[in-house]
Write a structure and sequence with these properties.
The complex is a heterodimer of chains A (101) and B (203). With 101 residues, chain A is an all-alpha fold. Chain A has three helices and no strands. Chain B has 203 residues and is mainly alpha-helical. Classes of the chains: A mainly alpha (101), B mainly alpha (203). Chain A: It is a multi-pass membrane protein.
């Protein structure tokens, strides 16, 4: 097993996350797609850590930081979605157009 | 090139199975109409990623992935879906299907670009993988020697995001001592909430 299958799997997950981020109309699904993209990045970091830096596994340290920051961002993002839902009574992304020109 | 005690064939089969599970559940997350099914498939995605971490000699990070992502983030997403669960059909937007197709084409192009980049680069792969007694010990040594500052900053960031999420999502209830003249009937058992000022939507 070599490095490249892991990188291709991570690239596929990242592209699926981008598709979900752009086309979702539900705001919670947008946040789920962001989590998919962060997992793809983590997989990349871990693959490089294992095959290029296996003595001092700095990629794994970086991955732990990304996991913790992703958890914090998911909490704040969902609090924002909840707050928007309370004031607008919808989670349709097409309706959140206050900043549109 | 792994230090797991599995043979080479088992590792390849595991990789193929985990990759298939990962891709299928990720497609389910972004394509399914029912958001609850999508949230559960997100949990399956996280578990497959943890399995891939195990194939990469990362036992501690695989356990942390299951604990944090499946155990906390996925549950949080499910609770948020429960709280914003409004059964409505979205009004169709014009050129909606065309937008999805164009986005799909762009994402496929990006994946092709990344795939070509990955396969055509000469990665400087180390000849053999170091056998560490415990990844957790090495990670702990990093956290307290050369990655100490990011570790402390991450803890401050978690504290700040905790306070921020609570402040954003709280409701301010009007205490019972005030007699407020709102249009709520006498028999209603709702807790009165202080109304928040809202910006008007453009149409």
């Amino acid at each position: 097993m070599s490095l490249e299958p892991f990188l291709i799997i991570a690239a596929a997950l990242f592209c699926i996350g981008i598709y979900g981020l752009i086309t979702s109309r539900n705001a919670v699904r947008v946040l789920m797609s962001v989590e998919l993209m962060l997992n793809a990045v983590n997989l990349n970091l871990m693959a490089f850590s294992n095959y290029l830096d296996s003595a001092s596994i700095r990629g794994q340290v970086f991955t732990i930081f990304v996991i913790s920051i992703a958890a914090a961002e998911a909490a704040v993002g969902l609090a924002i979605v909840l707050s928007i839902y309370r004031s607008r009574d919808t989670v349709d992304m097409e309706q959140f157009n206050l900043l549109r020109w | 090139m792994n230090n797991i005690g599995l043979g080479d064939g088992s590792q390849t089969v595991s990789l193929v199975v985990l990759a298939a599970m990962l891709t299928a559940s990720a497609m389910g997350v972004v394509l399914l109409q029912n958001i609850v099914y999508a949230a559960f498939l997100l949990g399956a995605t996280f578990i497959s990623v943890a399995g891939l971490y195990l194939l990469l000699n990362a036992d501690f990070v695989a356990a942390a992935q299951v604990l944090i992502y499946v155990g906390a983030v996925n549950i949080l997403i499910l609770f948020a879906i429960m709280l914003v669960n409004k059964r409505q059909d979205y009004a169709s937007v014009k050129y909606g299907a065309l937008r999805n197709v164009v986005t799909g084409v762009v994402c496929l192009g990006l994946f092709a670009l990344l795939g070509v980049t990955v396969t055509s680069t000469n990665w400087a792969i180390a000849p053999n993988i170091a056998k560490l007694p415990s990844t957790m010990v090495v990670i702990g040594q990093h956290f307290f020697s050369d990655y100490l500052l990011p570790f402390e900053l991450a803890s401050i960031l978690l504290l700040v995001s905790l306070i921020g999420a609570i402040v954003l999502a709280r409701r301010e209830f009007i205490p019972d001592t005030f007699k407020v003249d709102l249009k709520v009937s006498e028999e209603s058992l709702e807790l009165l909430e202080k109304p928040k000022e809202q910006l008007t939507a453009s149409k």
